[in-house]
Amino acid sequence: MDSALPLLLAAYTVIIAVVIAVIRFGGVAFRLPMQIGAFAFHRLGIFRKLPDAWHAPIPRTSGITCTLNCQACELAWLGCPIGMLQRYVIESRLPIYIYGVLVAFGVALGRAICGWLCPFGLIMDMLNKVSIHKFHPPEWMRFIKYGYLVGVVVLAFLTGMIFYCRYLCFGALLGVIPYWLTWQTVSATWLVYHVGLFSAYVAFGYLTHGRAWCRYFCPLGAILSILNPLSLVRRNFDWKWCTHCERCKAVCPMGLDPTKDDLKSKVDCIKCGRCVAECKSKSLSIGTVFSGQPQAEKRTIKAPDS
Amino acid sequence: MVRFKMEGVMKSKLVGGIIARVQGFDLTPEIVVRVRLVLLLSAILALILALKLGDDWYVREFANYDWARHIGY
Lengths: 306, 73
Description:
The complex is a heterodimer.
Chain A: H1 4-26, H2 31-42, H3 81-90, H4 96-109, H5 112-116, H6 119-130, H7 144-159, H8 163-168, H9 176-182, H10 188-207, H11 212-217, H12 219-227, E1 233-237, H13 247-251, H14 263-268, H15 274-278, E2 284-288
Chain B: H1 2-24, H2 29-53, H3 57-63, H4 66-69
């Protein structure tokens, strides 16, 4: 492992630096390419299964990623922190490695990971486009994800198996279903169960909000939420320019009011920049703690006299 | 009965007080910077400890498909 250590630390540092640089200098326009790139990066294991001309000996794992990433699928090559957390609990090992990865990424990027890197986030965003937003679940449901997080650890400890992945996770989308489509070695019972579970989450997202999984259920989102207020990536708001049109509030996939700096916004904002793109007065921006108000020069209207 | 009621009131006051203190806690920029720095350093230390002093258990565990087969693969 000695040789892997500098390589892994360098890889983590480069990923964090690239994401921060893209957010700082590229802006919201680069979010979709970044999401697609991250999705492809997490699925590099596909090269193991391609014919000789395209075959590449991608290792089963070279480390744990910072996003939800079903590692049960052969297309994956990076470990899911939630899946591995359960393995550490079952084996009664201290999850120091998980702590290191999640705290480093969480403090650096916060929930920008959900908005910019998570493969599931990309799919949730696609679901958000077709979601009818008919029902609005109560605000207390945001706490379910923390319950899921506690449940991940407690149930793994009590049952001695990866209970969360087995019975509760949305991971079927990137695990069971692709696995079944490509190699068809999934038992019919599990396939039906996971497709049903996945359909239930999708139906819930379709009726409420596309990002319902991220908002209410994701245990990794719960961990990142705790670290989000400390993140180097932040949403800036210049109240002097705000016209109170509330368009930002209407488009926020996490159901937040981007003009407020309350606890809910601090912990749940995924820095996706939907509010920034919608804001006509350019009073909102996504930047880093190193930048002030990067969009100030782009304003098209005058500030109201105050 | 009265005692139970009093206890209930005291408990709700205590819980309310704790919630108010958490909500009212002023997270100043200086505190944020310090906490961020401590957490980042601890994360780097944890990564070094986990990979240098630890073992390659996680690699073997992840590289092994057996646990995935347990869920029907």
